Amino acid sequence: MTPDFDILIVGGGMVGACAAALLAQEPTLADVRIALLEANPPLLPLENGDVDLRVSAISRASERILSRARAWEHLPAQHLSPYLRMAVWDAASKPTDTSALHFSADETSEPNLGYIVENRRLQWALFESEPLRKQVTMLNARLANLEFESDHVRVTLADQRVLRAGLVLAADGAASPSRKFAGIETAGWKYEQSAVVTHVQTEKPHCRTAWQRFTATGPVAFLPLADGRSSLVWTTSPEQAERLVAAPADEFAHELEIASDRVLGTVKVAAERARFPLQLAHARNYTRSRFALLGDAAHAVHPLAGQGVNLGFMDAASLVETFAAARKQGAALGEIGETRVLRAYERWRKSENTIALGLIDGINKLFSNDNALLGSVRRAGFAAVEHVPMIKRFFILRALGLSGERPKMVASR
Hints:
This protein has 413 residues and is of the alpha+beta class. It has helices at residues 14-25, 60-68, 119-128, 130-135, 177-181, 238-246, 249-259, 308-328, 339-367, 372-387, 389-400, 408-411; strands spanning 5-10, 34-37, 55-58, 81-83, 85-90, 101-104, 114-118, 136-139, 143-148, 153-157, 162-170, 186-202, 209-215, 218-224, 230-236, 267-269, 274-283, 287-288, 291-293, 299-300.
């Protein structure tokens, strides 16, 4: 029975839309019929220079992937906030101490360490990409069920439509209904932490630097925006997060100055505030026959290293490269959804993501406490990274997404 679509992507967020655009422009997949299922169309970017609350730190690897997807060209330069440096330090020290960690683009051959970009604007740019607009069928509906057959997936939508897909790619977030329909379980835990986000105007200029101070309850991070403000991600206990979001602006600002040790001087709240709970989750399997997970549907991480969506973009690029390799080796169109092809993607990305999740979780546990002994250990560790070039280069390349087993579109300029 001929499927309605060869590939159906569930979830039109940043990762799902990126996967759709990459698939649509891959020459070896020119005969593939692609559909993108998303119940909520992307929102228009904010006007008048305003910046949405949800932003991401986009790595160099992700920039190259988004360029291949023909989305980067739709991001106006004035809405890209490049950062040149990063400063990380422990609450018991100062950013000028020898135990503080500093990364700089000057230590690399790269022009910057990445960009702070609004999620909303990036999703819109992906939907504006030419491959997606011209070659992907948009389905504005919610998924109701998946039923797996040997050669296709029966897809039932909430509006009662029934479709057949040769392969389903799930990019529908950490709570992924698709993953549950596929019977794939996750391992992980909820952190006793929530992230408070807003934008702030600071007395001192951010100097295109990402500032991150670790406190006993979690990191306080200032991410530089192009308009001179900083996007704040303040990780703390759920109880304090709830109180901080509800507190008067001047009270919030005062507590932020204390938590950040006034690294950027006095602060003024310059946007609404929001909070969201944090968790670590990792799918036990990334694939089954006719099905694969990408992005948060496969792995949800702590935001402290800014790697969440970057890992998802790498998933999308790796999966497309896996399909391309299979087609070049003679795989028929219907065979790219078979287990033997999908397992190659799973082995590749699960091993890379396990390393990333372990590093991020370990850093959070090591730093988000007030244990004096661990404090000495982490400051010594920072000092070692800061003063041993080989170790420091490892962390810089990880942050840039330019280490590990990378897709060709990332490895090549």
